[in-house]
Each structure stands twice: as structure tokens, then as C-alpha cells.
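It is worth pausing here to work through a concrete case rather than discussing structure prediction in the abstract. The textbook approach is simple: state the sequence, then state the predicted structure, then interpret. We follow exactly that order.
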Amino acid sequence: DGCRAVFELSSVNSRFLEVSIRLPRWLMGMEAPLRAVIDKRLSRGKIFGQLTWERTDLAPTQAFNEQLADLYVEKLGSVAARHKSLGPLTQGDLLRVPDLWGSQSENIDSTIESILNEALNAALEQLVEARNREGQALAHDLAERVRLVADYVEKIKALADLVQAMMRDKLTARVQELFGQAGHDPQRLAQEVAYMAERADITEECVRLQVHTQHFSETLSSGDAAGRRLNFLMQEMNREANTIGSKSASSEISTYAVQLKEELERIREQVQNIE
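Step two, the predicted structure:
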């Protein structure tokens, strides 16, 4: 019916859903219903929306805001009278004035609401489609990185068993070298060596990290909104990786621990982009 609504939406990263919509003044009453439509489709991101309302015809029946036009002519005419260099006000000048055609005298009826909802839903479809395309590429990248993390954990776990046995042998040999065969209690020595070896044991951390990586992969492929859950998992995975690094008793494990933390940091940065 001579009307055209153009909705433009853009989205950037945010921990929560933040919606901002710019509307013509006479449509400000539609802000809450339009925000509700967006809230139903999206759960995360900073969303910027802008509506352009256009008239596609200039039919004689179209509303024209004469009161606003008179006000502009009066005000601009007085300015032009004081500044002769500006020249007289023309009809072309008035055509560039916003809201003269229909904007101030439109009534928000069911037809206008339907047009706005149709435009917004069309924009939302395109936005969700674009986010899904980006999300698929991101999911593929994260899956590869989590696979690398799992490989590092397997290598660390395999080394940990060997290192623990080596530590017991080295500690026992060192104590015997210092104190000789006499002068110490063999049972107490065995207990102390076992205690020190246990302090350097990272088996539990490796097992928990394996469980977290499996949970991460399952969550990533679930199809649900998973950004917050993945972020929480990353916190747990980083905690285990830091413990592994601090308890590391060999240079090889330390090297893998550093590579593990580097990969987890890359994953953590990417997780911030996931809804």
C-alpha cells in the first residue's frame, strides 16, 4: 500500500544478549514488540537494528504533514531573511526535510505492524543463516584443536607413568648415596619416596582433562546454545593444565604442558564467539 520497510541487523560478540534498535520517531511504540521478536530468535550477542521506512508512491491521498512544513518554512525563512547570502527557500529544500511525507500522521495499525514484523523476520533469517555459516567453520576449527589437546594429554599420561617410576628409583638411589646402607629406616625411606612421587603424580589431572575434552566435543556437536557451557569447561580445562605444568617432573612433560596450554588459550579465545 505504498509503504516499504527495510530492516538492517548486525551482530557482534557479547557475553549476553543486548539489543539496540533505531526506529523513526513515530514508530518508537513498536520498539518493545520488535525487541521481543529478536529475543525469541537469539540468545547471545550485541545486536544493532535499524529500520528505514519508505514511501514507494506519492499519491495525492498520501498524508502530508503541512504543519511541519509550515514550521520549517517559517523558521528557515527568518534565517534566510537575516542572511541574504543563503538565497530564498525552495520546494526542493522542503523535499529534503525528513518526516514531511506521512511520518507524523501515520497511525500504527495492524497492517504496519505486519509489514514491520515481516521485514524484521526476513532480516533475522539472514542474520541467523550468516551466524550459522560462521559457526560451522568455527566448530570445525575447535574440533580440530580439541583433538590436539586430547593427543597432548595422551602423551603426557603415557610419560607420567614412566616418570613416576624413574623418580622413585632416583630418589631411593640419591638417599642411599647420601646416607649409605646404614643409618636410616628402609620403611620410612620407602614412605617418603612414595609421598614425594605422589606429589608429582598427574594421573588424576590427566583423567579429568580427558573427561572435559570429551564433554567439550559432545557439547560442541549438540546443536544447542553452548557458548556459556563451553566457557565453563575451558576454565576447568585450564585449571587442570596449569596443575599438570606445575607438577611436571620432566622436561618432556613440561614441553607438552606448554603446548597444551597454548592450544587451550586458542580455544578459549574462539569460544567467546559462540552463542
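Step three, interpretation. The first helix runs from residue 31 to 41. The chain has a mean pLDDT of 81.
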